[in-house]
Write a structure and sequence with these properties.
The structure holds two protein chains of two kinds.
Chain A: E1 5-13, H1 20-29, E2 35-36, H2 40-44, E3 51-52, H3 65-69, H4 73-89, E4 99-104, H5 110-123, H6 132-136, H7 140-149, E5 155-156, H8 164-177, E6 183-190, H9 195-203, E7 233-241, H10 242-247, E8 254-263, H11 276-288, E9 296-300, H12 310-321, E10 329-331, H13 334-337, H14 344-358, E11 360-361, E12 377-378, E13 383-384, E14 391-398, E15 402-409
Parallel strand pairs in A: 4-5, 4-6, 9-10, 9-14, 10-12
Antiparallel strand pairs in A: 1-7, 1-8, 2-3, 6-7, 8-15, 11-13, 14-15
Chain B: H1 4-19, H2 40-54, H3 60-63, H4 69-80
Helix pairs in contact in B: 1-2, 1-4
Classes of the chains: A alpha/beta, B mainly alpha.
């Protein structure tokens, strides 16, 4: 029998709230974190997309100036979320050799990398700061969290594009089940609202161009969806071996019942239209958690609001859940906060844990004309989830054909 | 040409920006590593910022000789002369 793993701490910084209570209140209400960008570089580089969903609380309002100086913006967000999760778990005594970190990013220190390149070209090599390498490396966020909390059982960085955050939670479960750690701080962070990634995502036609109406641009499942909205921020969860949590009388939000990761091996960016990889991931996570389709009451969908992405996820859910898919309350929270790329899975894991714990599903906004080819029961106003033993799933898919699913069970 | 007092004040500002140490803690006889707890990466950042601020060049091989704040002030002062 595998070790049971529970969730005892949550932390976030997102476009709809700089901490868990604020984000959760807004997620149930239904707000948009997307706004027109005021930065000079939007016009300077004639970007085709003029808006994004910025973190509602700048990291510099939480971190000291000196500690922030040594961190890429993505790491700043990660540390903010990890500190909230750690404080929330209220672990007063810990064997630091048994505490691990699994903290993901999709892109990593893109601001640091490109700022250093500008400095090199404009001012020469002498002016490239000595902290450049540790700030731009993708493991920078895991390393910073490990350093901050004294986590010495390894600091890991799964990187699988927009599935990264969910894959970090999957890795956290493995680290505890395999006995390598008793407690894992896992999550994901991203800070890529920079002209280059915006230009690159726009160039592949992945971003919404609804420049005149940013708040209504992210509209998963809507007939008129035209791409995702760039978001930024971080999510973090404290995972704990059940016996470790019980021994200290911890408050337990939910059980992390099962997880899985699969690969499409179909196309570098396009999702498999039949959703076969996603279906296998869903089935594997359910098998891993000994979950029957009928146990599942809620899904936090990947649902990025791209024309091609939303439908295969429905196909996969139908294949994995059968006719029970009609009874599942589906939330597409990227409608509110945009797509946090490598952080999205971690933030959505936090939302999924809260949904199970509070028995409420967060809201999907901007669904005006539901795509008839995606007849899911989409939650558009605050919805109570049933009493009794319940399970919720959270999906994430990433460029490269990465599929990651987690299953959260009530306790 | 800056006086030694001006160089010290400018250096203290750079150290404060990099480490958060109060400028008045940056005194001539203080050791960068022992007293001010400045690691090698911060030291290089301070050196590069000082080069720009004072218009001097501090060669890499010279940095290890700058043990105290006074060493740095004197080096910069001589380099400006």
């Amino acid at each position: 029998m595998a070790r049971k793993v529970v969730i005892t701490g949550l932390g976030v910084t997102t476009p709809i709230g700089g901490d868990v209570p604020t984000m959760w209140k807004n997620a149930l209400k239904g707000v948009s974190g997307a706004h027109t960008l005021e930065d000079d570089w939007v016009a300077k580089y004639e970007l085709p997309v003029h808006f994004a969903a910025r973190a509602s609380t700048p990291a510099l309002e939480v971190l000291s100036r000196v500690e922030a100086k040594r961190m890429d913006p993505s790491t700043q967000f990660g540390v903010v979320a990890a500190r909230e999760a750690w404080a929330d778990a209220n672990i007063t005594e810990i064997d630091h050799d048994r505490l691990a970190v699994a903290f993901a990013t999709g892109i990593g220190g893109v601001w640091t990398l490109l700022d250093a390149w500008d400095t090199l070209r404009e001012k020469g090599p002498r002016r490239v700061l000595p902290m450049t390498v540790p700030m731009l490396m993708p493991n920078g966020v895991a390393a910073a969290v490990s350093l901050d909390l004294g986590a010495r059982a390894g600091a890991h960085t799964p990187v699988s594009a927009c599935a990264s955050g969910t894959e970090a939670v999957h890795m956290g479960l493995d680290l505890i089940r395999s006995g390598k750690a008793d407690v894992v701080v896992c999550g994901g962070a991203e800070a890529a609202i920079h002209p280059m990634p915006i230009a690159a995502f726009a160039s592949m036609q992945a971003l919404s161009r609804r420049n005149d109406d940013p708040e209504h641009a992210s509209r998963p499942y809507d007939r008129d969806r035209d791409g995702f909205v760039m978001g930024e921020g971080a999510g973090a969860l404290v995972l704990e071996a059940e016996e470790h949590a019980l021994a200290r009388g911890a408050r337990i939000y939910a059980e992390l019942a099962g997880t899985s990761v699969t690969a499409d091996a179909y196309h570098i960016t396009a999702p498999d239209p039949e959703g076969l990889g996603a279906t296998r991931a869903l089935k594997a996570a359910m098998f891993d958690g000994r979950i029957q389709a009928e146990d599942v009451v809620h899904v936090n969908a990947h649902a990025t609001s791209t024309p091609v992405g939303d439908k295969p996820e429905y196909t996969a859910l139908k294949a994995a859940l059968g006719s029970h898919v009609d009874n599942v309350a589906v939330s597409a929270t990227k409608s509110q906060m945009g797509h946090l790329l490598g952080a999205s899975g971690a933030v959505e894991a936090v939302l999924t844990v809260l949904a199970v714990h509070e028995r409420k599903a967060p809201v999907t906004i901007n669904l005006e004309n539901q795509d008839p080819e995606i007849p899911l029961d989409v939650v558009t106003s605050e919805r109570a989830l049933p009493a009794g033993d319940i399970v919720a799933l959270s999906n994430s898919f990433g460029f490269g054909g990465h599929n990651a699913v987690i299953a959260v069970r009530s306790v | 040409m800056a006086s030694n007092e001006e160089i010290l004040a400018g250096l203290a500002e750079i150290v404060n920006e990099e480490t958060g140490l109060a400028p008045e803690a940056v005194e001539m006889d203080k050791s960068f590593t022992e007293d001010l707890d400045i690691d090698s990466i911060s030291m290089m950042t301070i050196v590069v910022n000082a080069e720009e601020k004072f218009g001097v060049r501090i060669p890499d091989e010279e940095v290890k000789n700058l043990k105290t704040v006074g060493d740095a002030v004197n080096f910069i002062s001589n380099a400006q002369a």
